[in-house]
Design a protein that fits this description.
The protein has 26 helices and 13 strands. About 55% of the residues lie in helices and about 10% in strands. The protein has about 725 residues and is of the alpha+beta class. Strand 6 and strand 7 form a beta hairpin. The strands form three sheets. It has a seven-stranded antiparallel β-sheet, with no helix packed on it. Strands 8-13-10-11 form a four-stranded antiparallel β-sheet. A two-stranded parallel ribbon has the order 9-12. The chain folds into three domains: about 450 residues, Sodium/glucose cotransporter (Up-down Bundle), CATH 1.20.1730.10; about 100 residues, Immunoglobulin-like; about 80 residues, Beta Barrel (Barwin-like endoglucanases).
Length: about 725
């Protein structure tokens, strides 16, 4: 590809790099302990975490992957961003309060406390593979964009971004991640909004855009069983179930973001807002470039070289289309937002890998009883190591032509056994350590084996109408009776549509320029936006599954042959590997649980949904106080010496409906800080010094509070 953009675009990208590095590094002063470094001190407001999760949920892979999916499949590319609704109750009332009240530092730690050490070890291995794989996938997709923009090899751009991300994560930890993601989330939404506005202007407004889409692109769902590489059921099981469940329940970075919120109730607000409001917006932000490109190419208004570039390699859809749609300067801003998408996902994943490395490897097996400052130093070393390992995984993803295929192959292999174990662990008290360990191990082995023997998944896939790969239909079209076919691609229907035509035939074979078969073409005529679209299709029978075929349109009656390409047959049931893994692990887990003894001596308090109230009591250190009170705003008084408790007047305690021993939350009254200067603290005996809040100097420093600023006080539990 040629070099895109203008000098002003490069200046904007460079300025963004420098700005985000300085901004992220500023928060190093707020990371004094491992609790600060990994969980931000568990002090932040729900709206700050919700805003930062925008950038975490939208990775560089989102823009590039969904632009490709939007170009190839149209509106159905939104499907995977709208699948989170069904997991809200499980996370909101189950997993989140369990990990929060049990003070779980890492997901493998849950496996140790719920089951045993060997289960923790196998969970650690699989979760680290999952997180490191995500880092590599994001690095690779940003490399595609930067190669297109700067014309330099992927490795240089990826390494540059990796160094910047690693620096501010290593210095600032979770607090830096949250605040940089806040800025980067705003960048992403602003860039997505600009692209939508400019794209609609380019294609002639909403009406012009809609008319440029064919019927398959207009549908919100892909065909229920066609095409085989974008199957509705397959996408649902791979992304909607396993992908979403894995991201929500076993993605350490996502979990750590919720552990940084000041309370479980605040976490529930964040989850609701993120799922019902922000996710639908995100679907439009990341997918609209592909939709605009599909309409523009169909209407013939894209430059020929750009259209050819996208058609030859749909991975380039985002960068090529953005360069055409945007004006100088705006393109640089959008690429900076793409970089923000990468760094906001990478910083979360690096911090997550580091947490597992410190708590589940170093502290568990290398040095168990060191000082907290020692673990903080080790955490920063692990941050660098996680970045390097993620870079090493760029190459495996670069070998896949389909970004969807690469993503879901990866998700479907790693996640099912761990997801099943988490769900059974929190829902089924009888599920024991033996069943957990062996079901994860057997499930992982069987899923990996399906890579070598794909037909293991075939019976399951066929129950959902998956394509066996023995035939397919391809389509192309011309506009206003132009003799030049526009493109060749798989159709979303099984048989050709329209009437037989003598204008074209389709030739195909397993090697280019060696077309051993030919089939007739069918035509369907459609009027759109004052233009006549001749949509052709041809049916190819008796094919080999999982095979690439070279195809060529051959003109008849004076029409010149001018379209050629490749299509790949179905029979690759990779999307169903996730469901296959879920079922295998679940069956093994249930059988082993029923035929082994229950762990009678295991302390499950706070580790299942049936024991959450016990977990709340342990979290507080006493009986929870659930009487609802008001928040109060008070001046702060600091004592040079004193206990580590908060002391209020009796009147303030009455307004709060608080009692001695309750867990309180005090924060700088400036709402826009989002809890940056705040502290959880237990309530001590009332004082008689007026309506002020009294804390020790040590507590002031721990909460990064300022003595001459007003604070807000609220009861947590």
């Amino acid at each position: 590809m040629h070099m895109l953009g203008t000098p002003i675009d490069y200046v904007i990208v460079a300025a963004y790099f420098v700005g985000i590095l300085l901004f992220g590094s500023y928060f190093s002063k707020f990371s004094k302990t491992t609790k600060d470094f990994f969980f931000g001190g568990q002090r932040f407001s729900w709206w700050l975490i919700a805003a930062s999760l925008v950038a975490t949920g939208i990775g560089s892979y989102s823009f590039i992957k969904y632009a490709q999916a939007g170009f190839e499949r149209g509106m159905s590319s939104t499907l995977t961003y709208l699948n989170d609704w069904f997991i809200i109750p499980f996370f909101m009332f189950g997993w989140m309060p369990i990990i929060y009240f049990a003070r779980i530092k890492s997901i493998p730690e849950y496996f140790q406390r719920r089951f045993d050490e060997r289960t923790r070890i196998i969970a650690t291995v699989l979760i680290l593979l999952y997180l490191l794989g995500y880092i590599g996938f994001n690095f690779y997709l940003l490399g595609i964009a930067m190669e297109s923009l700067l014309g330099i090899p992927i490795v240089y751009s990826v390494v540059t971004v990796a160094i910047i991300s690693a620096i501010y994560v290593t210095l600032g930890g979770q607090t830096a991640v949250i605040f940089t993601d806040l800025i980067q989330g705003a960048f992403l939404y602003l860039a997505g909004g600009l692209l939508l506005y400019l794209g609609l202007r380019y294609v002639g407004g909403i009406h012009g855009w809609w008319q440029g889409l064919d019927l398959a692109h207009r549908m919100p769902f892909p065909g229920f069983n066609r095409p085989s590489d974008f199957n509705l059921f397959g996408i649902f099981w791979a992304e909607g179930v396993v992908g979403t469940l894995a991201f929500t329940f076993m993605n350490q970075g996502f979990i750590m973001r919720y552990l940084a919120i000041k309370s479980v109730n605040e976490g529930r607000k964040c989850l609701t807002w993120n799922t019902l409001i922000l996710m639908p917006i995100s679907a439009v932000v990341v997918g609209n470039v592909g939709w605009m490109a599909a309409s523009a190419i169909a209407k013939g208004i894209f430059p020929a070289s750009a259209a050819a570039d996208i058609l030859a390699n749909p991975k380039h859809t985002f960068v090529v289309a953005t360069n055409i749609i945007c004006r100088p300067g705006v393109f640089g801003f959008v690429i900076a937002a793409l970089t923000a998408a990468l760094m906001s996902t990478i910083d979360t994943l690096i911090n997550a890998c580091t947490a597992i490395g410190v708590f589940d490897i170093y502290k568990a097996y290398i040095k168990k009883d060191a000082a907290d400052k020692h673990y903080l130093k080790v955490a920063r070393i692990f941050s660098v190591g996680a970045t390097i390992l993620g870079l090493a995984l760029v190459w495996p993803f670069s070998t896949s032509r389909s970004l969807f295929a690469a993503h879901y192959a990866f998700v479907g292999i790693i996640t099912p056994p761990v997801v099943v174990a988490i769900f059974l662990g929190i829902l089924w008290k009888r599920f024991n350590a033996k069943a957990a360990f062996w079901s994860i191990l057997i499930g992982a082995v069987v899923v990996f084996s399906s890579l070598l023997v794909p037909d293991m998944i075939k019976p399951l896939a066929l129950t959902h109408g998956m394509d066996t790969g023995h035939d397919l239909t391809v389509t192309w079209y011309t506009v206003d009776n132009d003799s030049t076919p526009t493109m060749i691609r798989k159709a979303s229907v099984k048989k050709p549509i329209g009437e037989p035509t003598n204008e074209f035939i389709l030739r195909y074979g397993t090697e280019p320029d060696n077309y051993t078969n030919e089939v007739p073409a069918y035509v369907y005529v459609e009027q759109l936006a004052g233009r006549t679209f001749y949509r052709y299709s041809a049916y190819m029978p008796n094919l080999k599954p999982r095979t690439k075929y070279a195809v060529e349109v051959v003109g008849k009656e004076g029409k010149a042959p001018s379209a050629a390409g490749f299509v790949k047959t179905g029979g690759n049931f990779g999307y169903f590997r996730a469901l296959f893994g879920l079922l295998v692990t679940l069956i093994v887990a249930v059988i082993l649980t029923l035929f082994t003894k229950r762990d009678e001596k295991k302390d499950l308090a706070g580790l299942t949904i049936w024991t959450i109230q016990e977990g709340r009591a342990r979290f507080k250190g006493g009986k929870p106080n659930d009487i609802v009170g008001k928040k109060v705003k008070l001046p702060l008084k600091v004592t040079a010496e004193g206990d580590d408790l908060l002391h209020l007047s009796k009147d303030a305690m009455e307004r709060l409906k608080a009692e001695v021993g309750d867990l309180m939350y005090i924060a700088d009254s400036r709402w826009y800080l989002g809890g940056l200067r705040s502290l959880h603290i237990h309530l001590g005996e009332p004082h008689k010094e007026g309506d002020v809040a009294i804390i020790s100097k040590r507590m002031l420093d721990e909460g990064n509070l300022i003595s001459d600023k007003m604070i807000k006080v609220e009861k947590i539990i």
